[in-house]
Amino acid sequence: MKPQRVRMAHNLLLNYGLYRKMEIYRPHKATQEEMSKFHSDDYVKFLRCIRPDNMSEYNKLMQRYNVGEDCPVFDGLYEFCQLATGGSVAGAVKLNKQATDIAINWAGGLHHAKKSEASGFCYVNDIVLAILELLKYHQRVLYIDIDIHHGDGVEEAFYTTDRVMTLSLHKYGEYFPGTGDLRGHRCGKGKYYAVNFPLRDGIDDSTYESIFVPLLSKIMEMYQPGAIVMQCGADSLSGDRLGCFNLTLKGHARCLDIVKGYNVPLLLVGGGGYTIRNVARCWTFETATALGVEVANELPYNDYFEYYGPDFKLHISPSNMSNQNTTEYLERVKIRLFENLRMLPHAPGVQMTDIPEDALKVDTEIHTENPDKRVSIQASDKRITCDEEFSDSDDEGGPVRREAGKLRKHQENFKNKRLKTDSNTDDTNTDKVSNEKVSETISEKNTEQVSEKVPEIISEKLQEKISEKLQDKTKLNTDEDVKKADELSQNGKNGDITNKNGDLTEKNGS
Ligand SMILES: [Zn+2]
Q1: How many CB atoms lie within 10 A of CB 165?
Q2: Mean pLDDT confidence for 246-262
Q3: From the centroid of its chain, how far is CA 490?
Q4: Is the bond preceding 455 in cis, omega lying within 30 degrees of 0?
Q5: Identified catalytic residue from 10, 111, 112, 367
Q6: Which residues contribute to the annotated binding site for substrate?
Q7: Residue 70 CB coordination number (10 Å)
Q8: Rounded alpha-carbon distances, angstroms, from residue 155 to 123, 129, 219, 289
Q9: What is d(CA 197, CA 210) in angstroms, rounded to the nearest whole number?
Q10: In this model, does residue 143 exceed pLDDT 50?
Q11: For the chain, which terminal residue's Cβ has fewer other Cβ atoms within 10 angstroms, N or C?
Q12: Is 112 one of the catalytic residues?
């Protein structure tokens, strides 16, 4: 299982130099216990056990859990689920701890997975698990889904609660997964909290924006979420192998830009997308959008350069397909949805109880008096840093020092914020650094190729500070640094981020 789409996106945004504004983290592997916060124990256990070489022993269970056809068994399936989930949950933790404003896990976004059932190449619903984490700190969470498919797994998971509102814009009508009509299907307290905009083929940028903007505006006014999770499935782009919409990168990312404008803690996840060169383009552009930076249309040379021919440009053009979403149809749907939204109480409250324990344990590594443990911060930085990927910068001492400097800079500039490293996991778990503005993670599952894989996280406002820091050639493990780390950690809190992905092939999907 090669996480090709995410690998390509990651490589492209590295070569655009976006990593200079990002913090990069390797995902922790979500445990069976973490996944069972939503999924049934027996289903997670099944995912852990099933392999291509023992499938014949599991025929009955494969049927029960819908694994085998649209959701094939492959080598590394469970680890794929662990990393995709770990990234999104860790992003949520980081947002909860106010260690970042935007966290990104392009490997996540597997919105079809159900409690005890795989669906559309989604096995574990990282989104639901991340939302559950956000609900520990936020009264209301808004989920936005711009994948071409209905976000059915997320909608269903929060069927009866008003603490999560789901907004999904998707192709509807003889199309996977078959749900997502205008009425929405939630009940009890959850009634009217599933906002579905069923669309026809060929929707273009301007039409999409004309419905997205007023709808989101009304939702934000009525619901006032404390955090937002946005699924940026790229199968809604023009030219997708499975899709039938006509969005360009600009129209797709425009939605993100609008969401970002509300300045609410935001977790971005990936999702579908089956023309992988465009998926990589899209998520690279959206990473830049999250950062608020311009990127050139001319693609930089990268490891997958040949995929982007013949034009080797970032942006794509819409096709000449007809837009079957007439103005009358869209207005009619919009009016209905607005009527539903008016039925809702304004920003429903919830009685908060004690905050449950965070999904990820607060790391104690930095508090330890064992000097070997402190060194491990640097050691971990080495593990996640790839000389080749960062080699375009000839400044100051190479990537390891740069990463170390990044940590130090955080320590210097965010003394009132928490900084923590996460020590509770195995070698695949690297240190976490608090961040101010944007966090993005991309990583890969193959821990034996650590030098090629770089999960990442971004910081927007930090950029200048990081640049300054790059001038600094001192090493992390000087006495002074250790002292600063200690000071900071004593004020500190924690957060982390992770992620991972696999290449989604042409299935009904995400
Ligand atoms: Zn999809």
Answers
A1: 27
A2: 98
A3: 29
A4: no
A5: 112
A6: 70, 120, 274
A7: 17
A8: 16, 13, 16, 27
A9: 12
A10: yes
A11: N
A12: yes
The answer, as to whether pTM is greater than 0.85, is: no
DSSP string, 302-315: -TTGGGGTTT-BS-
Instruction: Give the mean pLDDT of 85-103.
Output: 96
β pairing state of 23-24 and 266-269: unpaired
User: What would the two tokens of residue 339 be?
Assistant: 């009527």
Look up residue 199 and give its DSSP letter.
E
Domains plus CATH for the chain? 4-342 (3.40.800.20), 379-425 (no CATH), 437-508 (no CATH)
Specify the amino acid at residue 468.
E
- Residue 227's DSSP bridge partners are 141
- Give pLDDT tens digits for 5-45: 999 999 999 999 999 998 989 889 999 999 999 999 999 99
Cβ burial of 216 (10 Å; 0-12, 13-18, 19+) is buried
Asked if the model's pLDDT at residue 481 lies above 90, the reply is no
Per-residue pLDDT at 441: 55
Q: Which residues make up each annotated binding site for a divalent metal cation?
A: 147, 149, 235
Displacement of CA 65 from its chain's centroid (Å): 25
Partner residues linked to 266 by β-bridges: 102, 228
Number of Cβ within 10 Å of residue 474's Cβ equals: 13
- Sign of the C-alpha dihedral, residues 316, 320, 325, 327? positive
Tell me the HSE value of 16 on the side-chain side, using a 13 A CA sphere: 28
Which residues are near ligand 1, the ion (C-beta closer than 5 Å)? Answer: 147, 149, 233, 235, 272, 510
E-state strands within 51-110:
102-105
- Which pair of structure tokens corresponds to residue 158? 């929060």
Question: At residue 422, does pLDDT exceed 80?
Answer: no
CA angle 391, 86, 112 (to 5 degrees): 115
- The SS3 call for residue 73 is coil
